[in-house]
Design brief:
The chain is of the alpha/beta class and 477 residues long. It has three domains: 157 residues, Response regulator (Rossmann fold), CATH 3.40.50; 152 residues, GAF domain (Beta-Lactamase, 2-Layer Sandwich); 140 residues, Reverse transcriptase/Diguanylate cyclase domain (Alpha-Beta Plaits, 2-Layer Sandwich), CATH 3.30.70. The protein is 41% helix and 23% strand. The strands form five sheets. The protein has a six-stranded mixed β-sheet with strand order 2-1-3-4-5-13, sandwiched between helices. Strands 9-7-6-12-11 form a five-stranded mixed β-sheet, covered by helices on one side. The protein has a five-stranded mixed β-sheet with strand order 15-16-14-19-20, with helices on both faces.
């Protein structure tokens, strides 16, 4: 019988990748973008396995795990936490003793499949158990209507990956067409031919070049989409040399009486992208035009890059069956939240811990004017910049769709204020499609030893946040 998995992640790109990966491995994959939607889906599907991200708005991955483990009807379903967090980061979320499988998103994607197969063999669910879960579906609906949890008032509609692509403006037109046209079971020559067919109407280039490693031939091959030009062998070889490619495959539009293009200077502008996955170049793409300043603005380029990055990542995952496996810490043993910060180094320095809430104050405006994919890009930029500002053992998580919570160390409120100001300056004004982020922060001091009340810390941080404004963007209480 086909194995079923529910995948929970607020990133559309991540859902696309994992859905394709599991379906190729003969699983039934169900994708949802919120933990709220996932909980009802569990009873509807009775999956063999659940895979969840940790950093999600409203209802995070670890809270979802806690809810599942406390529900007697579904508590035996195995769960993998698949997150950008490392083990140390992950402990930041755990408020009670939990014991779940854990894998980092930057590990080899095939390790997730291997781990999934290993878990369902080790913890198989009987048909009787699954039928009991399905039988409780209506009961759960009734219970949820009678006793909704306070912070479940904000609901996110369950959206499949396909539905999301259909509703996303701009990027969906390119992304969905590329997704529908792409069959990774084809050889690369057919796959890239279809790729050019989809991409050309959006970019109208004169020459397109895609450079890929051939897993069969163990060499890099350049695929040329030649439009209304004749490409001289000399120029072709020069592009091969520039891209370190050993072989060329040409897709030609034969048109008589065209002048031969002999050098790169005849192309007055080019658009170039490099794509990497697990620290390895997966593709190099160059689009050439004979027109000056032909390419779209930076925001549009970023949208194009995001879509193409997903395509070449999926191609790499589907084609490369021989990725070297590396050791990874698959198992997360949870601790009390406070234990993470009562370490010897912090005691020695006698630093206070400051719990801060960073809010995107104009998020509703961004949400109304940007697509899901564009919001994903903004959130990834914010997360990356915040993490780059944090010191060892300082932590971050996304506590709501418009809010990030962080724990930082500082010897006094002045130092904490300076740290938060630096973080806000790093993320304030992140631009996408002419829309800019506006951020505020509130923080409170919370010295502790062995225990920590995250709800109280967050409440105090929110009280400070309410006092923040444009003139005083950081408030500490």
């Amino acid at each position: 019988m086909t194995k079923k998995v529910i995948i929970i992640d607020d990133s559309i790109t991540q859902l696309n990748i994992l859905k394709s990966l599991f379906e190729k491995a003969q699983w039934e994959a169900y994708c949802v973008r919120s933990a709220n939607a996932a909980f009802s889906k569990i009873f509807e599907i009775a999956p063999d396995l659940i895979i969840t991200d940790a950093i999600m708005p409203v209802y995070g991955g670890f809270r979802l795990i806690k809810t599942i483990r406390e529900n007697p009807y579904i508590s035996l379903i195995p769960i993998i936490v698949y997150s950008v967090l490392n083990e140390s980061n992950a402990k930041f979320y755990v408020k009670e003793e939990l014991s779940e499988y854990f894998l980092r998103k930057d590990d080899n994607a095939y390790e997730l499949i291997d781990l999934a197969e290993e878990i369902v063999k080790k913890h198989p669910l009987s048909e009787e158990y699954k039928n009991a879960v399905l039988a409780k579906n209506e009961i759960l609906k009734d219970e949820t209507e009678e006793n909704p949890e306070p912070d479940e008032i904000i609901k996110q509609d369950e959206e499949s990956v396909e539905a999301v692509w259909e509703t996303v403006a701009d990027i969906s037109e390119l992304g969905s067409k590329l997704s529908l046209k792409s069959d990774f079971s084809f050889d690369d020559e057919k796959l890239i031919s279809d790729f050019f067919t989809v991409v050309y109407p959006f970019l109208n280039y004169d020459l397109g070049v895609v450079c890929l490693e051939s897993f069969e031939k163990k060499i890099k091959i350049a695929y040329f989409d030649i439009r209304d030009i004749i490409l001289s062998p000399i120029l072709q070889n020069k592009i091969l040399s520039n891209t370190n490619s050993a072989e060329a495959i040409l897709y030609k539009k034969y048109a008589p009486n065209l002048k031969i293009t002999t050098n790169l200077e005849e192309f007055h502008s080019c658009l170039e992208f490099d794509f990497e996955y697990i620290e390895k170049q997966t593709a190099k793409v160059i689009f050439y035009s004979k027109k000056d300043d032909f390419w779209p603005d930076e925001e549009k380029k970023e949208i194009i890059k995001a879509v193409l990055d997903e395509f070449f990542k999926l191609r790499y995952i589907n084609k490369n069956q021989q990725i070297n496996k590396k050791e990874s810490n698959r198992y997360l043993s949870g601790r009390l939240f406070g234990n993470l910060f009562s370490n010897a180094e912090n005691k020695k320095n006698q630093n206070d811990t400051y719990f801060a809430c960073i809010q995107i104050s104009n998020f509703s405006d961004l949400k109304n004017n940007l697509t899901y994919e564009e919001l994903d890009i903004i959130n990834s930029k914010i997360s990356e910049k915040i993490m780059n500002c944090l010191d060892k053992n300082e932590q971050i998580y996304k506590s709501d769709e418009d809010e990030y919570s962080i724990a930082i160390f500082a010897k006094d409120s002045k130092q904490a204020y300076n740290k938060l100001s630096f973080i806000l300056n790093s993320i304030n004004g992140i631009t996408y499609n002419t829309y800019k982020t506006e951020v505020l922060a509130g923080a409170s001091s919370c010295r502790f030893e062995e225990t920590f009340n995250i709800a109280e810390a967050q409440k105090n941080a929110h009280n400070a946040l309410e006092q923040a404004n444009e003139s005083q963007r950081v408030v500490i209480k």
